[in-house]
Design a protein that fits this description.
Blueprint: E1 14-17, E2 20-25, E3 29-34, E4 39-42, E5 54-58, E6 63-68, E7 71-76, E8 87-92, E9 104-107, E10 112-116, E11 123-127, E12 134-136, E13 140-141, E14 144-145, E15 148-153, E16 159-164, E17 170-174, E18 206-207, H1 210-216, E19 223-229, H2 234-243, H3 246-249, E20 255-261, H4 267-271, E21 279-284, E22 290-295, H5 300-309
Parallel strand pairs: 18-20, 19-20
Antiparallel strand pairs: 1-2, 2-3, 3-4, 5-6, 6-7, 7-8, 9-10, 10-11, 11-12, 13-14, 15-16, 16-17, 19-21, 21-22
């Protein structure tokens, strides 16, 4: 029953925290009103030009994430009671400016910020507590390539729902949980449907594709372990160097090992329905069933336990 009107400000994205409503406004700022519409204050103008289109509040940091055509920003250094202390910092500069969207969403359960940031329709993933930037490439279907408009995560942190700016649909992505079994989604390809490559098997025992591994499988082979890694990612390096050593892999004579570089082929995120590396998937080599998913860093003992549980 109330209305906040301003001739000087252009109000964009909104988010709520408790009894307060935060609104992104012109010149890289945001204002705060209470639940009754009373104006409580506004942050100072930013030093750099930034037209924030959407915002999300991060409670544990008392910070506010904002997205515009040029990337991801964070308001930090202040509180909702001391708005004048906030300063705008560019977190992720753009690689290409999006044509539309510019939405940002904070997932409390996983402590991640999701934001639209590419012309092709992908979504960026920024881990608030540190770690490598992730990316969800554009999904495609009967209605064409997805242009993300907004996102929301389920309460259990397992599913990310993304709406399409250009078509009447919502796309669902599954987030694998660390060292836990997960059901096979209908969109997860079997070994027979996996993308092929011209690379030859590596001398260290890793195959370059699931197709190559399947082609050389012998009667005693019953499992396929697929490792999705990003070479520049510290967690991927830790798994590569400390867990999946050649000596350790030789303890599993009935396993064929495949390693994919998600940096060289970002379409793997969409094909295998995940959005963050490293990820390991265990398959039944005989019928192509997905048995388990393990995300993030784990030990050799934890991998062995997951492997034994998949038998």
């Amino acid at each position: 029953d109330g209305e906040l009107v301003s001739q000087q400000l252009r109000i964009q994205g909104l988010c709520a925290h408790g009894e307060r409503i935060l609104a992104a406004v012109s010149w890289g700022r945001f204002l705060v009103i209470d639940s009754k519409g009373n104006f409580l204050g506004m942050t100072p103008s930013a030093d750099q030009q930034a037209f924030i289109r959407d915002i999300a509040y991060i409670p544990q940091l008392q910070a506010v994430a904002g997205a515009d055509r040029d990337g991801l920003y964070v308001f930090e250094g202040g509180t909702l009671e001391n708005l004048g202390a906030y300063r705008l910092r560019e977190v992720i500069p753009p690689k290409s400016a999006p044509k539309a969207g510019c939405a940002v969403y904070y997932a409390k359960r996983t402590n991640e910020i999701f934001f639209t940031n590419t012309t092709g329709g992908g979504m960026g993933i920024y881990p608030v507590d540190g770690g490598a930037l992730g990316m969800i490439p554009a999904a495609s279907g009967e209605l064409g390539a997805l242009q993300p408009a907004d996102a929301v995560m389920s309460d259990d942190g397992k599913w990310l729902y993304v709406s399409d700016l250009r078509a009447p649909r919502i796309v669902r992505y599954r987030r694998a949980t660390e060292a836990q079994p997960s059901a096979t989604p209908s969109t997860t390809p079997s070994p027979e449907a996996a993308p092929s490559t011209r690379d030859t098997p590596r001398p260290d025992g890793w195959f370059s594709s699931m197709e190559e591994a399947r082609n050389v499988a012998k009667a005693h082979h019953s499992r396929l372990v697929v490792f999705f890694h990003a070479p520049e990612n510290a967690k991927s390096k830790q798994l590569d160097q400390s867990v999946f050593t050649k000596k350790f892999r030789q303890q599993f004579p009935n396993v064929l090992w495949v390693r994919y570089d998600v940096g060289q082929d970002p379409s793997l995120y969409t094909r295998f329905n995940f959005y963050r590396a490293p990820l390991v998937i265990l398959y039944d080599l005989k019928d192509g069933r997905e048995l388990k998913r393990l995300e993030g860093v784990f030990t050799q003992k934890e991998f062995r336990e997951a492997y034994e549980a998949s038998k």
